[in-house]
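Box 3.1 A note on notation
Throughout this textbook, protein chains are presented in two layers. The first layer is the amino acid sequence; the second is a token string describing backbone geometry. Keep the layers aligned when reading.
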Amino acid sequence: MTNKLFKYDGQQDRAAVAEYLEAVRDGFARGTLTLRQGEQTLELSPKGLVSVTIEGKQKSEDRKLKLTFRWKERDCALPDAPLLIAPGDADDA
């Protein structure tokens, strides 16, 4: 597989940002996200579990919100049940 990078850096109004976020939501729901600007195109197909990182930052008058989604593009078996950890009885020690 070839490494491919898509990068966009620009300014948009809040309505356009909301539309982009809706498109990301819809892409995750459908299983395919396509990023395109001019001749630059990257198609991503999230599968299995997705790691989500959300960072917010406030410095002076500047504000920053960073959303990161990471996954492996391969079929991954989802766990059958959530992990549960409970303390043992004190008498078991």
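The mean pLDDT is 87. DSSP finds one helix and four strands in the chain.
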